Amino acid sequence: MNKLITTLGSSEIRESEILIQNYPFEPSVAYPGRIFIASEIEAVVLDFGNPKLHVTGDIVFVAAKYKNELKAFAKKNQISILPYSWNWDWVLEPFLDTEFSKADQRKTIEQLLKNGLRENEIMELRKEVGNQMIAYNFNTLLWEWVGLSLFDVLSAMKAKYTKAKYRDFYQRALEIEKRSTNHPGRT
Fold it and tell me: What is the superkingdom listed in this entry's lineage (predicted)?
């Protein structure tokens, strides 16, 4: 069970750079730690949960307690602020401690289709991550009922896969996160 829970590490928001230390996701360019200068950061996401730094080929999480500092950093350094991507939240809905009506489930699928996922792809993803997400949410006594996200699925799957398989999953997970009708970095 302990392998399922991932801590975020630490961050320090400076004038024109961000220090990341003890970053948990080994495939990341931030692992195990790194300094990102402002010009390396393509965009930030500040809505909901842990903020995210979009850097070339990666998404790096920063603890939610730095949200205000990160907002000021983005403004000062003229870094774009992106809207939140709900893709993983929607893919992971079946693993929440919440019941959704058939109509709500269909609306979720429709949103994912609008963002470029295919219905069979959604079902395959849910099958791939299902057992791990159930263990992550219920066996750890997290009992999340509002939302599971990219951070959660990366944490859960890290405990399941070998390094090579996790590296592949990590890249696929990021690509899915970036799919959106309103995301400038849409793949």
Answer: Bacteria
Residue 183 lies in a domain: no
CA atoms of 24 and 71, how far apart (whole Å): 23
* Residue 171 dihedral angles phi and psi, to the nearest 5°: -65, -40
Q: Which 3 state secondary structure label does DSSP give 44?
A: strand
Cα separation, 11 vs 8, in Å, equals 9
Domain residues for the domain of 141 are 87-178
* Total number of domains constituting the chain: 2
Distance CA 30, CA 42 (A): 15
Cis amide bond preceding 27, omega within 30? no
Per-residue pLDDT of the chain (187 residues; tens, 9 = 90+): 456 667 788 999 999 999 999 999 999 999 999 999 999 999 999 988 899 999 999 999 999 999 999 999 999 999 999 999 999 999 999 988 778 889 989 999 999 999 999 999 999 999 999 999 999 887 777 766 557 989 999 999 999 999 999 999 999 999 999 997 554 443 3
In this structure, are 102 and 76 located in the same domain? no
In this structure, the answer to whether residues 94 and 154 fall within a common structural domain is yes
Residue 185 resides in a domain: no
State whether 138 and 121 are in the same domain. yes
